[in-house]
Description:
By secondary structure, this protein is an all-alpha fold. It has one domain. The chain is 63% helix and 0% strand. It is built from 2 helices and no strands. α1 runs parallel beside α2. The radius of gyration is 9 Å and the shape is flat.
Amino acid sequence: MGGAATVVCLQQLKSLLGLEHFTHAADLVSVMRSVFTQTHQ
Length: 41
């Protein structure tokens, strides 16, 4: 349950940062990798 909440929070963070390309994978590693590799946009 905590993992799902983390993913939802990170997806909200994605929208705040304005990231266009984001992973649809639900695991934390994929989500974090997507956030950190796209912070240059």
